[in-house]
């Protein structure tokens, strides 16, 4: 079973447990993102979807992405304005993203202690964090080896 299939099964299960609809469009958007391996932009998703669904329009894609983000199934890569499948969707957590600037590879880290320290620091400043995005850009091992 591929990683994309595993993520889709986890997503179906989570949506069922939460009582939210995992529509065919939402499923296909997640599948496209999961199969990509790196960040995928909304208009790239739209291009792929429009070949399969003639009625696919930007609002369709953005609504699906919003749902997938809300459910913790997809992360938005702020610096690239792209989306990547969550590697661990069954677990609510802080995350960090390693992003290769050369090949676009994205890896998700789960260093909860970093997220907890940032939340504690913000609370001491009287600030309530609503969303946390930590992106680390550089070169992956493969790209470093070929440079």
From TrEMBL:
Keyword tags: Cytoplasm, DNA-binding, Iron, Metal-binding, Repressor, Transcription, Transcription regulation, Zinc
**For this UniProt entry, what is the primary localization, expressed as one broad class?**
cytoplasm
The record's annotation in InterPro entries points to:
FUR (IPR002481), Fur_C (IPR043135), WH-like_DNA-bd_sf (IPR036388), WH_DNA-bd_sf (IPR036390)
Q: Where is it localised?
A: Cytoplasm
One Pfam family, please name it.
FUR
Domain of life here?
Bacteria
Binding partners and assembly: Homodimer.
Task: Please state which protein family the record places this protein in.
Answer: Belongs to the Fur family.
* PANTHER family from the UniProt entry: ZINC UPTAKE REGULATION PROTEIN (PTHR33202)
Name of the protein in its database record: Ferric uptake regulation protein
Species assigned in the record: Halomonas casei
What is the gene called?
fur
């Amino acid at each position: 079973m591929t990683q994309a299939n595993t993520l889709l099964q986890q997503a179906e299960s989570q949506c069922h447990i939460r009582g939210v609809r995992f529509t065919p469009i939402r499923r296909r958007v997640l599948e496209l993102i999961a199969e990509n391996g790196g960040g995928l932009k909304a208009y790239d998703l739209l291009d792929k979807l429009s070949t399969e669904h003639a009625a696919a329009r930007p609002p369709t894609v953005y609504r699906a992405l919003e749902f997938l983000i809300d459910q913790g199934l997809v992360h938005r890569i702020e610096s690239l304005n792209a989306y990547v499948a969550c590697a661990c969707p069954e677990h609510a957590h802080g995350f960090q993203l390693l992003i290769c600037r050369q090949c676009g590879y994205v890896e998700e880290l789960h260093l909860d202690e970093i997220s907890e320290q940032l939340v504690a620091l913000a609370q001491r400043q009287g600030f309530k964090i609503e969303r946390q995005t930590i992106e680390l850009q550089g070169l992956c091992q493969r790209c470093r080896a070929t440079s």
